[in-house]
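Milestone 3.1: sequence recovery, worked example.
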């Protein structure tokens, strides 16, 4: 089956659950993939740690066995788990918040999580993975995900291969990643 791209606009008006629910579903799906050669990109001028998965009723215990008893699974814990499936690449700017995030001990010691810092003009925002692309106004922070009014577009890949939109996003983020080396 040729790959097809299906898209959905998500609007939040000062918070709400549509965006956190989308992120939980999309990001959890990556943990179910077999290992993949394409990386996952997380691009945002500011990246911070935040509660991502509500595990108070052990809904996500099977995806995070070592954290099964934790009531909340943090974004940093998610990235650590994802790095067992594919390379994780963080693109951000050199600022106090992003530096604090990258200095979290669990992330510093993970071999498949890398970060590159762009200059202050870098303003790309999105999450790109082999099976989806989320682009829009959301910073990858607690406020971006849960508090601020945001508009993102969720592009989902149906079928095998990469639709042009996803392939072009990989070309651009791969190019940007290499220029920051």
């Amino acid at each position: 089956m040729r790959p097809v791209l299906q898209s959905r606009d998500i609007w939040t008006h000062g918070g709400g659950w549509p965006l956190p629910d989308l992120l939980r579903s999309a990001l959890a799906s990556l943990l179910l993939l077999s290992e993949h050669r394409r990386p996952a990109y997380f691009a945002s001028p500011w990246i911070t740690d935040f509660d991502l998965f509500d595990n108070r009723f052990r809904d996500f215990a099977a995806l995070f066995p070592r954290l099964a008893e934790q009531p909340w699974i943090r974004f940093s814990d998610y990235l650590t788990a994802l790095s067992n499936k594919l390379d994780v690449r963080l693109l951000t700017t050199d600022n106090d918040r992003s530096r604090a995030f990258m200095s979290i001990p669990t992330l510093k010691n993970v071999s498949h999580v890398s970060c590159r810092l762009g200059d202050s003009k870098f303003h790309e925002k999105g999450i790109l993975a082999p099976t989806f692309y989320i682009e829009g106004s959301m910073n990858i922070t607690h406020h971006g995900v849960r508090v601020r009014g945001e508009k993102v577009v969720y592009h989902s890949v149906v079928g095998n291969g990469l639709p042009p939109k996803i392939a072009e996003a990989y070309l651009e983020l791969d190019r940007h990643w290499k220029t920051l080396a």
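Helices lie at 18-31, 75-82, 96-102, 105-108, 142-147, 164-179. The mean pLDDT is 92.
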